Amino acid sequence: MIDVKNLHPLEVKLLRHISKDEDVYAERIEKELGYKTGQCNQAFSWLSAKECLSEHSRKTYTWYELTDMGREWAENGTPLIRIFNLLKEGKHLSIKDICERLSLEQKDAGSAFGYLSKNGISAMDEEKKAFLVKNELPKDAEDTWNLIKKGLEKPLSDEELSDEEKKIIPSIAKKRGAVGSPYKTVEREVVIFRLTDTGEEVKKAVLAANITGEEIGVVTPEILSSGSWKTSVFRPYGLDAPVSRLTPGRHNPYGNYIRWVKDKLTSLGFEEFDGPLVENEFWNGDALFMPQFHSARDIHDVYYIKNPSHCKEIEEPWLSRVEKAHMDGGDTGSRGWEYKFDREFTRRQVLRSQGTVLSAHQLTKCKKPGKYFGVVRCFRYDEVDATHGADFYQTEGIVIGKEANLKDLLGLLKMFATEIAGATDYKYVPGYFPFTEPSIEIHIKHPVLGWFELGGSGIFRPEVTKSLGVDEPVLAWGLGIDRMALMNLGLSDIRELFTPNIESVRTRRG
Questions:
Q1: CA 457/CA 477 separation, integer angstroms
Q2: What is the pLDDT of residues 370-385, one digit of tens each?
Q3: Which own/partner pairs from 416-420 qualify as long-range (CB within 8 Å, at least 24 positions apart)?
Q4: Alpha carbons 170 and 153: distance in angstroms, whole number
Q5: What's the Cα-to-Cα distance from 327 to each of 74, 118, 130, 296, rounded to whole Å?
Q6: What is d(CA 197, CA 359) in angstroms, rounded to the nearest whole number?
Q7: Chunked mean pLDDT (size 10), the chain, 510 residues
Q8: Fold exhibited by the domain 68-150
Q9: DSSP-assigned letters across all residues of 161-225
Q10: What does the pLDDT read at residue 78?
């Protein structure tokens, strides 16, 4: 039988407050007992371990909350609505003029005008100025704006959306990296507990012993000076509690894991590369055939460097060759992206958002055939959760050779999933990246988190390789080594890899 005198006050108050067959969940206890979320979780965990509470059910709720950009759109109109209203005045304006008048980013204005043009609502005259063809917006544009305005009142629950709104919301809401989206998607799991028979017996014992949870556990100067200790009830002290143990120094388990990965790849004949944390837009995106001012860059929400904001110059002949590939394909056999390449934009400095930037550098100086890898720290604006961080490590690599093919790439991905991550279940999933074709993602199944993506891979497009001086096939991958470590080290939250909790580091295997 549990010694009720050793129960924590959080447990005592909770037991006294609830009854058999009642739903017990965090929101209720926070409201009725004034617990904080962490206190609820502690009480639930402790009482569950003592078999006083048992999980009854759980449900995941999805909510949509406006971002700062979404609030601005809700109050002033979406870029599409604002451009339409501006052109309704009968003016012919260039995209640059539209951006200046409405304080819009060029990519937002271009995307909105593309929609209007595609739907026959606006067009360009001979001077490349936009004008209105039809004086009526499609219903879906109005519906999208109405749905964004609806979020000003309160976060939207997935359950309260209409069927029509449920069709629209996926296009304007993102789970992570939502800074460039009007809505961010938030998933909340509610776990409902019930008092067990054991819990009912413990509750009776607590009531019989007249334990309230208000007993004093710490003697403070205020208690001594006021004399309130004379009439107070104290929690019992465990005089037989074990003394603190001695703990020797040890290596960080995640540091050990990264060194082990490097040793394994080196033993397979790979050469390691590395580079600076600060890069420019040229190597971070342009050299990888990611078009400037295009939605493809939305997957990489970068951190910009304030001072100096731009590098002095980009190396030649790579700048001219990449510029040519973007504008008309150059000598790559492609039509390119068919837009005017911005040499000012390409010098802008950022914290690198992907390890592939180092692969691009390596192409200009690689041996053929050759195998290269790096363990690279990257920075990308993201919502931090169990599998995402705002800064993270990737293992990045390329294989160059005339005989390199998709089958070789699949074999490498399998090795990362099974040997380096230690997963027993894995699968290949088709993907899209502007710089590879075909593109493949590798997913593994975690015993707690379920299926999640390790990263992307593919065969570099000729627009990438030929522009950087390589005529042979190049296999490329960029995988989250943090996520592989979750599986290998038996963890279920990526934040545990970087925890300041020294006790966690002392007891973790690896």
A1: 4
A2: 999 999 888 877 667 7
A3: 416/442, 416/454, 416/477, 416/479, 416/484, 417/442, 417/444, 417/454, 419/264, 420/261, 420/264, 420/484, 420/488
A4: 20
A5: 36, 22, 22, 16
A6: 61
A7: 82 92 90 91 92 90 86 86 84 85 84 84 85 84 85 83 86 77 85 92 90 82 85 74 70 87 93 92 92 64 87 94 94 91 93 90 92 90 70 90 94 93 92 92 89 92 94 93 87 79 66
A8: Arc Repressor Mutant, subunit A (1.10.10)
A9: S-HHHHHHHHHHEESSSGGGSSEEEEEEEEEEEEE-HHHHHHHHHHHHTT--S--B-S--HHHHH
A10: 86
- Tell me the one-letter amino acid at 255: G
Based on its alpha-carbon atoms, the radius of gyration of the chain, rounded to whole angstroms, reads 29
Q: How many whole angstroms separate alpha carbon 84 and alpha carbon 290?
A: 29
What was the pLDDT predicted at 1? 65
Phi and psi, residue 398, nearest 5°: -140, 150
Q: What's residue 241's pLDDT?
A: 60
CB 173 within 8 A of CB 183: yes
> Structural domain boundaries of the chain?
68-150, 255-504
C-alpha distances out from residue 471 to 183, 273, 434, 467, Å? 43, 21, 18, 9
The span from the CA of 325 to the CA of 331, in Å, is: 7
Tokens 């909510």, located at residue: 63
Give the total residue count for the chain.
510
Q: Which residue matches tokens 């108050």?
A: 13
- Sort strands 122-124 and 271-272 into parallel, antiparallel or unpaired: unpaired
Query: Per the structure block, which two tokens stand in for 455?
Result: 């990263």
As beta bridge partners, residue 440 has 430, 457
Q: What was the pLDDT predicted at 295?
A: 63
For 283, residues 6+ apart whose C-beta sits below 8 A from its C-beta are: 357, 360, 361
240 SS3 class? coil
Q: CA–CA separation, 280 vs 284, rounded Å?
A: 6
pLDDT digits (tens, 9 = 90+) for 19-43: 988 999 888 999 899 999 899 999 9
Q: What is the CATH number of domain 255-504?
A: 3.30.930.10
pLDDT for residue 101: 84
Q: Which residues pair with 474 in a beta bridge?
A: 400
